[in-house]
Amino acid sequence: MKRLLLVTALFAVAALAADVTGTWKATAEGPNGTMQRTFVFKVEGSKLTGETTSSMFGKSTITDGKVDGDNLSFTITVKFQDNEMKLNYQGKVSGNEIKFTVEMPGGGQTLEWLAKKVS
Q1: So what's the pLDDT on residue 105?
Q2: What's the CATH architecture for 2-117?
Q3: 50 and 57 Cβ atoms separated by less than 8 Å
């Protein structure tokens, strides 16, 4: 009986997580104009994995990814002028869109991204 309750609880938690699996195209307004980034997400339960690509930073692997209901979070590491930087993403899913806030290294600065599901 306890086992059945545990399995049921696990399925309930998984059912509550937003399904962001697939490809998403995102844009953000930066100091030098519009930036673009592509995300390819994979979700297993509440674990978020995948990769992201941008023309400025190339390809990065998603680490420490989590999905909690309509909220998701993850970290990527990018290389900029021979320095590695960790970028922390926090997002909220609404239909086929995700609004991300990205914390820049050094704290205090954030960037807003809007992603739309492609496939």
Answers
A1: 74
A2: Beta Barrel (2.40)
A3: no
Whole-structure pTM value = 0.81
The token duo for 50 is: 């995948």
- The domain locations on the chain are 2-117
3-state secondary structure at position 108: coil
d(CA 63, CA 61): 6
Task: Flag residues of the chain having pLDDT under 50.
Answer: 4-15
Q: Are strands 63-68 and 47-54 parallel, antiparallel or unpaired?
A: antiparallel
- Residue-wise pLDDT for 83-102, tens only, equals 899 999 999 999 999 999 99
- Residue 69 and residue 52 in contact, taking contact as beta carbons nearer than 8 Å: no
| Residues whose CB is less than 8 angstroms from the CB of residue 97 and which lie 6 or more positions away in sequence, other chains included | 114, 115, 116, 117
